[in-house]
Amino acid sequence: MGNFPLVLNQINKSFNDGDKSIKILKDLSFSVKKGELAAVIGPSGSGKSTFLSIAGALLTPDDGNIFINGKDVSGLSDFQKADVRLHSIGYIFQTSNLVPYLKVEEQLGLVLKMANHNTEEKSDHVRILLISVGMEHRSSHYPHQLSGGEKQRVAIARAFANDPDIILADEPTASLDSNRSAAITGLISRIVKKKNKAGIIVTHDEGVLPFCDRIYAMQDGQLLEQTTKRGTNNESVQ
Ligand SMILES: Nc1ncnc2c1ncn2[C@@H]1O[C@H](COP(=O)(O)OP(=O)(O)OP(=O)(O)O)[C@@H](O)[C@H]1O
Ligand SMILES: [Mg+2]
């Protein structure tokens, strides 16, 4: 399991709809390797976000196991799960979810503070992260002063701030035009490769797929790997 920071085994999840219980995930098993970016596609309502929330220890399955860096988190308390999330997982959402009243550099500083990162190194670390996403020139800006693509760049830097082994992105390009979408996906893909992270992108955006190593479709509550490779990593995208 050492090469697989994230392993899901036989996950089931149902939600109640009135007095009916609807099964969304059915005996779903999935894993992602270090240095690999996986895409998850599928119709609206098929369970992609539910899967990602369970993979990120944000939502508890009805049964099944989730191994994060080899550790079974299924039986952990909420407090223990929060600790695993803080240190092992970076999240990127459809909208950047930046804190409106914090400057760009403070958004990252907050994450480092929560994880008790060494204070002296903090400002250097923040600067390096912002350089890696091409946003160091906006470090004193507030979110409302940034474009959609710039906000997503900051959100990516924030997701990688604690050096998590797993990066989970739920429709990170949904609010962007196709050029920005390619730039953002290229950026996620490059950082995943360079830092040897395991990444998952849930997407409706076909333009994301050429950047991904594997493509899975959510179908009848399970993730099925698609055999047709849609493209190869495009390293030239900035
Ligand atoms: N907390 C909840 N309570 C009840 N039903 C839920 C809950 N969360 C999700 N569902 C239902 O589970 C199904 C799967 O939802 P999910 O958000 O995982 O779909 P999705 O594939 O991400 O869809 P989309 O592409 O629209 O984002 C939907 O029918 C949704 O209504
Ligand atoms: Mg969703």
UniProtKB/TrEMBL annotation:
Subcellular location: Cell membrane
CDD domains to which the protein is assigned, alphabetical: ABC_MJ0796_LolCDE_FtsE (cd03255)
GO cellular component labels: membrane protein complex; plasma membrane
Pfam families the UniProt entry points to: ABC_tran (PF00005)
Chief location: membrane
An example molecular function term from Gene Ontology annotations: ATP hydrolysis activity
Membrane topology listed for this record: Peripheral membrane protein
ABC transporter domain sequence ranges: 6-237
PROSITE patterns for the chain: ABC_TRANSPORTER_1 (PS00211), ABC_TRANSPORTER_2 (PS50893)
SUPFAM superfamilies referenced in this protein's UniProt entry, alphabetically: P-loop containing nucleoside triphosphate hydrolases
Assembly and binders: The complex is composed of two ATP-binding proteins (HrtA), two transmembrane proteins (HrtB) and a solute-binding protein.
Family as reported in the entry's similarity comment: Belongs to the ABC transporter superfamily. HrtA family.
Function of the molecule: Part of the ABC transporter complex hrt involved in hemin import. Responsible for energy coupling to the transport system.
Name the UniProt record assigns to this protein: Putative hemin import ATP-binding protein HrtA
Species the sequence originates in: Cytobacillus oceanisediminis
Organism taxonomic ancestry: Bacteria, Bacillati, Bacillota, Bacilli, Bacillales
